[in-house]
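input
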Amino acid sequence: MTDPLVSLPAFREAAAERLGAFAHTTVPDSPGSRRAGVVLCVVEHEGVPSVILIKRAYRGRNAGQWGLPGGRMDEGETPEEAALRELREELGLAVGPAEVLGRLDDFPAASGFSITPVVAAPSDPGPLRPSPDEVHSVHHVSLARLAADDTPRWVPQIDGGHLLQMRLRPDWVVHAPTGAMLWQFREVVLLGREARVADFLQPDWTRN
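output
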């Protein structure tokens, strides 16, 4: 069997099987809660399957932070519909519902949003057309880099907990919520392991 870390068709097959067997958790609605959908969008980049990561524009909510394409759900939308709509609005990529392979756990962000990550691997999403109003820069992280042993680092905290850092490059360090969703994607989809992330620590600056 071809390695799903280096072949997009093999990734699609493995991801669909693993996500199909994964019982994702959903954060229940509550007064004042807000919902969002994001996409772990896997495309071929420089010959290998890679996840699209963005740095948000230096304005508005989450200014300058690492993130996955996505955003707030509109009334009547499902998380998948919101995630794919935001992917199109932010990056110009056209991904259909049939190219969604599954979803991971809702993440209860400190900002008050419940974020639903969906996994998609489009065959022909079209060219990237980032919206300058929402996206400062676009980056690709290979699946092999995400799966590498030295990518996650757990930093001890004064209170005894540990803060996850996803070290994608020496100068690319991603924390929860985005880091938590990348870590669960790595564990469940790439490595085939059970993993939950709802209780992961989040830096104070992610509350904005």
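quick obs: Residues 8-20 form the longest helix (13 residues).
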